[in-house]
Amino acid sequence: MHRSGAVMAWNVFKFCTVLRGLGSIMIILVLGVVGVTYYSVVLTNYGPPLSAGGFDSFVAICVLVLFHALLAMLLWSYFSVVLTDPGGVPVNWRPAIDEERGETDPLSNSDYGALQSDPSNPRVRYCRKCNQFKPPRCHHCSVCGRCILKMDHHCVWVVNCVGALNYKYFLLFLFYTFLETTLVTLSLLPHFIAFFNDGEIPGTAGTLATTFLSFVLNLAFALSVLGFLIMHISLVSANTTTIEAYEKKTTPKWRYDLGRRKNFEQVFGTDKLHWFLPGYSDEDRRRMPSLQGLEYPSKPELDSEEF
Length: 307
Prior knowledge:
Layout (H helix, E strand, L loop, with lengths): L1 H21 L1 H23 L7 H30 L25 H8 L8 E3 L4 E3 L4 E3 L4 E3 L4 E3 L4 E3 L4 H28 L10 H33 L4 H6 L12 H9 L13 H6 L20
Antiparallel strand pairs: 1-2, 3-4, 5-6
């Protein structure tokens, strides 16, 4: 029994090490897919018709304008997820509520030893790997090796954890990726169908292969991303994360579920002008503590639930 536990721990450590090692490889892979798609759509299939005039030129302009607009938003959102710290626990952070005494003042040093060793207190959570207290909705990431505020998951594609400070950017990345890959799939569909028709197909072997590959890749990404997008829309509507959705299967009511609109605002903010941009207004950052990842509004009648 001890041996199997040791082997499992070693395998998990090895898996986490592999994920850390992927690093820039995944970013290069993403940019590679973007490059192949760009070559196929812009340089091979819709760039040349621009000078032809007529209806074909009009269609090419529409496709290229929409393609570049979505690509810009996709890359902006993607690198916002990659480069934004998902949120770590501040140094020397401590819980501010002593539920047993009904006080809201910061706990004194003498209180921490008892709280740290008392697993029955649902309001105080402690990470023994980081040797620190954990704020509400915070979880330890074995890949990053630290606790992440409102951790959703560690994403290989963005080489980063998805947490409180970059979850919105991740959702926008999924959203714009789905729109872009759907556009590419539809725009390349006539060229893909031409492969199976009789007659000569214009283009070199290289351009034809690139078109075929781009269509297949974008169709696959569109379908897979759609599934993830639907899943995360349901999570946002319930104001929960992937980890919390798994943990609260036995919880009939969720203390952070404030209604769909307020749940949406907890992630995207209240400023509608920023809903589709990877960023927040200064006003939202000032007056919404949830965007900082340390405090979250909840239902008062369910405040005794575990974080």
